[in-house]
Amino acid sequence: MRATSSVIVGRVAETCLLGNALDDASRRSGRAVFFVGDAGIGKSRLVGECAYRAYARDMPVLRGRATSTGLVVPFRPLIEALSSRFRAAGPPTDPELDPYRPALARLVPEWRQGSSPGYPETVVELAEALLRLLSVLGKEHGCVILLEDLHDSDTETIAVVEYVIDNVAELPVLLLGTLRPEPGAALDLVRSAEQRQVATVRELTPLGEAEVLEMTASCLETTPKEVPQATHERLAGRAGGNPYLVEVLLADLLDSGQLRRSGDRWQAYCSPDAAVPTGVVRSWARRLDRFDAPVREVLLCAATLGSQFSVTVLQAVTGLDDRTLFSHLRSAVEASIIAPDGADPDRYTFRHALTAEALVASLAPAERAAMARGAAHSLEAVAHELGDEQLQLMASLQMAGGDRHGAARQFAAVGRRMLAAGASGSAVILLDRARSLAHASDVRAVTEALAIAHAEAGELDTALALAAELPPVPARSQAAEQRGETHVRIAWAAVMAERTEEAAGQIRAARSLLGAAPPPEREAALDVVEGHLALLPGQSRPEQPRPGQTPPDQALPEQSQSGQESREKAAREGEAVRDAARRAAAVAEERNLPVVACQAWQLLALLSREHGFDEADSCLERMLSVAEQHALPVWRVEALVRLGANTFMRTGDPARLETARTAAESLGALVPTQTVDGLLAMNAVMRGEWDGAQEIIERSVAASARIRNLGAHRYLLLASATLAAHRGRRRDLDRALVRFRRAGGEESLLVPLQLGLCRAFAALLEEDRGQALADLDASLAWESAHPSFFYLSGRHGLRPLLRTIAGLDGRAELAAVLGSPGADLAWNQLFLRLADAVLWGREGDTERAARVVRSAVADATAFPLARHLGLRLAAGAALAEKWGEPVAWLRAAEEYFYAAGIQPVAAACRAGLRQAGVSVGQHRGGWDRIPARLRTSGVTPREYEVFVLLAERPGNQQIARRLSISPRTVEKHMASLLSKTGRSDRAALCEFSAECAAEHD
User: Fold this and answer.
1) 3-state DSSP call for residue 178?
2) 537 near 517, Cβ under 8 Å?
3) pLDDT of residue 85
4) What stretch of H or E contains 11?
5) What predicted TM-score, i.e. pTM, was given to this entire model?
6) How do beta strands 265-268 and 259-262 pair?
7) Closest CA to 251 of 277, 230, 228
8) Of all helices (H) and strands (E), which one includes residue 243?
9) Cα-flanking dihedrals φ and ψ of residue 636, to 5°?
10) Average pLDDT of the residues in 657-686
């Protein structure tokens, strides 16, 4: 009979914890729970109980397990978890998952659509995609993901688990993981999560004697009183409270006849000096002896392959036909030794990892090595048909069989392939393993690959240390070329990490090895890296965006703002870098090096921006062509994003940006997708499409924070603040700017935009022109003190207009601005042309002034707020200097700002109309904006305009200034409001206004 317990014994606290966690997940209060314990202590039994309870609640369950064979398979538990849920049902169809399908297809390749090359998702992007999938699955009842044996997991899986732990709190998801208390990344993660109070961790302790007795009774389907005392003492003394060992030792007693049922009672027939097993190894050896020889050989061979094994591989090793092999496997299944793996029809698993270990340990060392050698030779015969996982298995068998050098070659080959595929963390593990086994003649090449893997995994210091340890090679030799490539790739990683000194050192090392005349393809790669290095802060060239990254806080044009001498020096150095980049692009295209060609064209585009957009766009168009010709999806998206950003800045048209977003989304590329969303959100704000802007911000701002895409996150937060500023919502603006500051926005290159595109507009919409100019001056001062600036910061548009209206700037100052690339932006052109009109009117050419205003306004239909604000500003100058059509402009502006709910500007326009001697009718249709409880109290639209401003607790003078009415009128409205609302004093009325504003928000 089976010696297994049908109930869980001694885990009351743990099962209660699982019940509570499932309750929380169903209420959208996600949790991460981990059970830590030795092998056989009962972790898997609790996982099974959790799955059973989840199924009873109609909760989707995903279950995966890491391999205990020592094979490195990126995302193995996650792949198995998704397969367990979707292999039969097919991919989920929820539209919310559309942006994440390409990333999820890395875990379930069958989900990949089309034959286009895939995007190498970062681990964070993949983790976010998994989190979204779990959230969608749990919408109705909650969702459970079960990950077992995390101590055997690859580094990529651990990174995904960490991400899920940190972000699961407000989602309908329960993450349950198990692991042994073995030192490693998994245990470190769990302990850290416990300390940060983002995960619940329970140590599973051995069962007590009473619990062992209860478990034994359950296995024997009897009561504890009916268990023979001798049997209980034997199990309690030898199993150490380990449930698995209790079952194994009990099964041995049953199989050997030392425990038998006699009538309705169990009888023990063993004596103290009987030849009983002293441990699980001898127990399994005895159980094996009871099988037929062929079944025994299959089990031993399977155990040699690991606790989980492929039928295909087992058949290749044993040479058995399908019928014979499955007959033997069926016998083992019936004996509860192995079981089919539900997630993979080609795979079986031993009932417990200790089972396989015990079976192998039952062999003599020489026999064990011989079996491993035989299995390795069998796999070598079909090596061309094996995947990376099977090749690692072959390497492990070679190592067990004594062929260390052969194992090293296999581990190194698989590690290099993983490095090329972007799984740098797993590549590090395999290449490090290969290095420890390699023949002396192979150590150098393996170490070079390992150094690159560490660099691309973000472990730059380790990479640099390995590179420094490498033995010297003859200059200008083939070995020198290989070593030079190692230094170049480490240099690239150092540039991306802004480690300028280390990057420069690696470049020097590469040039020293390659000599004064390196091969053209190596020279091209070096020139590209050196060009990037020249653009980093602290280098000769000013800071600019770096290829391979498109954070929106660096996506707009930048140029040097130092003195004449610095500009001339920068121009000379820039031209030298441009020449090198041009040569690199030509060589790369000639030698069929498309990635280097894309890097070179992107570098040229960055360097060309300070000369205008046309030259930069031509470089990006060539980059796009190369990427499409050579099927490089990442570089194609990069080109589309940059081209879209340039078009958006010049024309305000988002069409090309939307094309770039579609391309990025189709690849599952979250970082560039969020980058484009930031630009699209700001574009929507500038175009007055406020609801659309809010929708874009909401879909990406939280996700960008989770995946630590700080550039996009800050830009989205700034777009949110700019949206509030352009809608005249001071409270929303202040809250948004707090979030922006907390995200490090005020230490980023976005400061000029914060001042010029956000704060200055907020001041203008509050009719505080002095504050607006102060913000614009602060933006200019910041740009003068830093190496870069933004063309949308007001310096090339709004500031010249305000200074021209104030009489502070004239023709010379305007001409200087018009000669800069920033004047090409459609947004800036509106303000610059209005400044031109003001000057023409001031100079007496009134017809030309009016014509310029009409033309500027007609061309700015894409920017309604800027268009009407420009009319309001120009009308003041036109009224004072008697030119143009200021009355018509003020009427148009007043209607727009009144409809938009921006009362200070609408009131200023009405005041201007009255100043012009035009009768101004009050808007009496604003009753619908007044909350019901105020409307029923008799509060009028004009009184409500005053009431809304009271939330900010301004004085009467400030209210009068913002609404363009007299302080005496404000006093009358205040008295009326106090009477109608029943508030005792001004402070209470202000508090009431703040409450109403919060309710409205």
Assistant:
1) strand
2) no
3) 83
4) none
5) 0.66
6) antiparallel
7) 277
8) helix 243-256
9) -60, -45
10) 85
